[in-house]
Amino acid sequence: MRLGLALGYWGRGPDPGHVTLAQEAERLGYHSVWTAEAWGSDAFTPLTWIAAQTSRIRLGTAVVQMAARSPVTTAMHALTLDHLSGGRMMLGLGLSGPQVVEGWYGRPFPRSPLTATREYVDVIRQVLRREGPVELDGRFHAHPYRGEDGTGLGKPLKPITHPLRPDLPILLGAEGPKNIAQTTRIADGWLPLYWSPTRTDAYEASLTGLGEGFLIAPMARAKVCDDVAEGLLPVKAMLGFYIGGMGHAARNFHADLMARMGYEEEARRIQELFLAGRRQEAVLAVPDAFADEISLVGPRARIAERLELWRKGPVTDLLVLAPDPLTLRTLAELNS
């Protein structure tokens, strides 16, 4: 199991320590570093900044949102950064949810998410392979565009720039069972939002018949500390926000995932509290047990014991949200 450093997306502003953490991760032998986006900073620009100040570590997005860019635009970003970094790019994509897609990007959330995702990946593959002009008579992505409001003058094109790697890895941040199953067929890897090494059966039906080299790269908060309860507070804060606020009461993919993992009653309670404006109570309502099983928090010996559970399962890359060099170094030593 390889280690990756997950930096997430910016909050109020850029974190001045991200480049230093990425450089330390590279020095410690981490395989990859990953950036993200929500409705503030984008994922590609910080990753390019990090690429310019590192030399070996792989560069991933976990994730860039499909609604933010057309598939050819995303492909252009990926092939450009792949060239500039010497072939270190790994492209992680996510569909997001209706609240973000329609509220922030001002676009309709696709009524058939599986089809929209499949078409998006198809177009990116065509760009990267550069075997001919990009053509797709898709329901959501048509190349060239043939809508009634178009001119009819669109011409199929292939990229001027020759991609460095036609097989640049594409990973998908899928949550629903059908979306995960499709991911195993059309992508090179899967980016689980929550992963519990003791509940791998929650995904078992969707992960049958994996191809050779398929990546499973979940994200987990990590913190070396003496007080486990205190160390779990950032995990609970994240869960409270995602499960309570990243979606509608009737349609929240994160809450549905928590429910499928055995915490349905707790997930609905977190939603109720968060949507009622009782955010601190929502955070406190996150079960310590759930926060603990999807993270690596506590003294070194405890983390070492729990890390073995992750290593025994199908995870190929553990992407750690590690806020300090001590935690990065400890995980590197324990995983060596």
Automatic annotation (TrEMBL):
Keyword tRNA-binding: no
InterPro entries for this protein: F420-G6PD/mer, F420_OxRdatse_Rv3520c_pred, Luciferase-like_dom, Luciferase-like_sf
UniProt GO molecular function: oxidoreductase activity, acting on paired donors, with incorporation or reduction of molecular oxygen
CDD domains per record: Tetrahydromethanopterin_reductase (cd01097)
Domain Luciferase-like: 18-315
Keyword Oxidoreductase among UniProt keywords: yes
Entry keywords, A to Z: Oxidoreductase
Domain of life: Bacteria
PANTHER family recorded: 5,10-METHYLENETETRAHYDROMETHANOPTERIN REDUCTASE (PTHR43244:SF1), PTHR43244
NCBIfam families xrefs: F420_Rv3520c (TIGR03559)
Name of the protein in question: Coenzyme F420-dependent oxidoreductase
Native source organism of the sequence: Streptomyces formicae
